[in-house]
Design a protein that fits this description.
The protein is mainly α. The protein contains 13 helices and three strands; from the N terminus they run ααααααααααααβββα. It folds into two domains: 171 residues, Ribonuclease iii, N-terminal Endonuclease Domain, Chain A (Orthogonal Bundle), CATH 1.10.1520; 69 residues, Double Stranded RNA Binding Domain, CATH 3.30.160.20.
Length: 248
């Protein structure tokens, strides 16, 4: 019994061997207080198993990091798109701060490799779980914010999410063009064709209108602030139309 207590105490106070310098290099940020980075990487399964206390996990860091991330992305979008109204800004922000986006950013940086998990969570595939990876990204944002302030956190978020927003949006949005192509190929209908009909508005605030056709028939028309968005919206309209009709 005494040995068991000694072992339990040892596991509660011991820390895993993690290479702080290596993680700092991956993050592109040097910590004045490395313990903040350590705390941000502890999943609740690890804290429960190794420390006997879930409250020592990164969940508090995740809470604050989520708010810091939302503020940074909101201000970045506000500054970057002066002609966008509330609805457009809200839609973009909700996508960029979603768990899917933060998980993409975390994996792109390499944060997922350093998350501290219990062996059972590891065996259950926790290291590949989007929610765990996305939460760890938010916790890391918090650790950088606490260590270096808002500007340090802003630089990290800008570099890992905002500067890569186009690629992230491509990966997170419903890819209606791909869905439409797969449907038409499965029915041996060939490839859909997209054509820009009009470009309206000034250069800094254009609205594109695109039509999608197959077998020389117009299947859908969509609008968007970019040609890519207009094509996606046209493909979505076409898919909805095809759902109501019986394809050959």
């Amino acid at each position: 019994m005494n040995i068991f207590r000694a072992l339990k105490r040892f596991f509660k106070i011991s820390k895993p061997h993690i290479n702080i310098e290596e993680i700092e290099s991956v993050l592109g940020y040097h910590f004045s207080d490395p313990t903040l980075l350590y705390k941000s990487l502890k999943h609740r399964s690890y804290s429960q198993t190794m420390e006997g206390d879930v409250s020592l996990s990164n969940e508090r860091f995740e809470f604050l990091g989520d708010s810091v991330l939302n503020m940074i992305i909101s201000q970045s979008l506000f500054d970057e798109y002066p002609d966008f109204q509330e609805g457009d800004l809200t839609k973009l922000k909700s996508t960029l701060v979603s768990k899917t986006s933060t998980a993409i950013a975390a994996k792109d940086v390499g944060i997922d490799r350093y998350i501290l998990l219990s062996s059972s969570e590891e065996d259950a595939g926790g290291r590949d779980r989007k929610s765990i990876i996305g939460d760890a990204y938010e916790a890391v944002v918090c650790s950088i914010f606490l260590d270096g302030g808002l500007e340090a956190a802003r630089e990290f978020v800008r570099r890992t999410i905002f500067d890569k927003s186009e690629a992230i949006l491509d990966n997170t949005q419903d890819n209606y063009k791909s869905f439409l192509l797969e449907l038409m190929q499965s029915k041996k209908l060939g490839h859909p064709s997209y054509r820009t009909i009009t470009e309206d508005g000034p250069d800094h605030d254009k609205i594109f209108t695109v039509e999608v056709t197959f077998r020389d028939n117009i299947c859908g028309i969509g609008k968007g602030k970019t040609k890519k968005d207009a094509q996606q919206n046209a493909a979505k309209v076409c898919l909805e139309k095809l759902k109501e009709e019986e394809l050959p």
